[in-house]
Amino acid sequence: MTAVSEQEPEAAGPAPAATAVAGQAGEEDLRALFGQSTAVFASLTGPAHVVETANPAFLAVIGEERARIGVPVAELAPELIDQGFMELLDQVYRTGEPYTGRDARVVLGTGARAREMFFDFTYEPRRDAEGNVIGIRLIGVETTQVKHAQRLMVEHRALVEQIARQQPLAEVLEGMARCIEELAPDEVLVSVLLADPDGRHLRHGAAPSLPEFYNQAIDGIATGEGVGSCGTAAHRRRQVIVTDIATDPFWDDFRHLAEPAGLAACWSTPILARDGSLLGTFAMYHRTPRAPQEADLALARVFTDTAALAIERHHIEQAKLAAEASARSALEELAKAVRAEQRLRAEAEQRASAAAELAAQMRVAAAVQAPAAPPEHCQLGGTSGCEAAAEIKVADSWGVSAWGCTAHVEEALITVRSAFIANEELGGLAAYLNR
User: Fold this and answer.
1) How many CB atoms sit inside 10 A of residue 342's CB?
2) 170 and 277: one domain?
3) What is the mean pLDDT of residues 390-404?
4) Phi, psi of 210 (to 5 degrees)
5) Checking phi first, is residue 97 left (phi over 0); if not, alpha (psi -120 to 50) or beta?
6) Edge to edge, what strands does the sheet with 240-242 contain?
7) Is residue 326 part of a domain?
8) How far is the C-alpha of 244 from the C-alpha of 246, rounded, in Å?
9) CA 63 from centroid of its chain's CA atoms
10) Number of domains composing the chain
11) Which of 78, 171, 258, 285 could potentially form a cystine with 189 if both were Cys, beta carbons 3.0 to 4.6 Å apart?
12) pTM score, two decimals?
């Protein structure tokens, strides 16, 4: 914005007195023009830059508790000295050359009351009838919201890029919360809660500025009507605005937590997936009772959608990882089964080979014994002998064979058990014959 300036009188122009009157009228016109404007206007006089007149917007920027007329700017806002603004005023007063600044950053107040603001402004010299600089006219337009919007868009773009790069969900959500807390014009504390798969409980997602005891206490709260701002928003699937926690019935069961945490208002928005299912909640807390402005609601909508994108991408990635893990497990189980089948096959082949070898040995033993004529009497009677007729021939794996009667053959089979398990220590059929 460019200020209206007075021109030096020409030689044939009006008398000095008339020029002075015209100049005074011009100042009155400017005061009338900017009196109720949102633009900042102040008329400064002398090298000390004393505030001669100012509109309410200027006083509001300085801070109504300390702003007053008839005092040098450096006394009203001493923090401006180290920011270079007083030096610029001195330069304009000394040279008579106007100065225009664009998106100039101004920090007003100190400590916890410090406020960052941005302005487009003009310092225009004020002249007397002879053309001498007698003061400076200040006209400015605040661009803080535009600047914050630009910064928000930059931060938002960075968050979307993080999501696209599949950064961990906790990092994305915490970065989002800090971004909003740093760029919001008023102090705000952000919290993101994540819904359980069944949608019945909310778990801690991110809340970098809330006290740890508070985060732990609300981790796992149920979704339901009247369960604070977040539990109710999750249950209703729509935004819940609590402007005063101290009196709202939704907070009856949580007021004992909010008070020591210094929380006085909470606006919660459900985070919904594209299919309408619950993903979580996005909450903005304030330390004083407060209702949201349209800019606050727009901010909540933008970052709630961003949180939904991040959470859905996280769920998709988790499902993909689970499917891959399940596939790997199935392959491992299949490999184990194949290895077990190979072992069983090898063992079966070994047993078949041993059985074939044993059968061959028995065939050899039988072949050796085949030419011999059977005895007349049973050979299985032991030292006492047996006069019964020899009817059946038995043998063991050692190649020992004998003929016996039916009774002694049965006894031999029961006693010797199996030739296949006989060994030299226990003896085979030979040991039985010599018992």
Assistant:
1) 10
2) yes
3) 77
4) -80, 150
5) beta
6) 221-222, 201-206, 189-195, 278-286, 265-272, 240-242
7) no
8) 5
9) 38
10) 3
11) 285
12) 0.51
Please indicate, yes or no, if residue 332 is contained in any of the structural domains.
no
- Which of 20, 66, 279, 308 is CA-nearest to residue 176? 308
Q: Is residue 130 part of a domain?
A: yes
Count of C-beta atoms within a 10 Å radius of residue 329: 10
Residue 265 covered by a domain? yes
Residue 406 tokens, joined: 């039916």
Question: Which secondary-structure segment (H or E) carries 87?
Answer: helix 85-95
Distance CA 389, CA 403 (A): 9
Asked whether residue 198 falls in the same domain as residue 116, the answer is no
Q: Does residue 67 sit in the same domain as residue 175? A: no
Q: What is the pLDDT of residues 66-97, one digit of tens each?
A: 888 999 999 999 999 999 999 999 999 999 99
Query: What's the one-letter identity of residue 234?
Result: A
Between CA 261 and CA 218 the distance in angstroms is 12
Query: Picking from 31-35, 76-80, 220-224, which range would have the lowest pLDDT averaged per residue?
Result: 31-35
Tokens 């630009």 found at: 150
User: Do residue 109 and residue 208 come from a single domain?
Assistant: no
Determine if residue 255 is left, alpha or beta; phi over 0 gives left, psi from -120 to 50 gives alpha, anything else beta. Answer: alpha
Residue 94, amino acid = R
Terminal Cα-to-Cα distance of the chain (whole angstroms): 129
Look up residue 422 and give its two tokens. 């006989």
Give yes or no: residues 107 and 26 share one domain: yes
> Domain residues for 403?
372-433
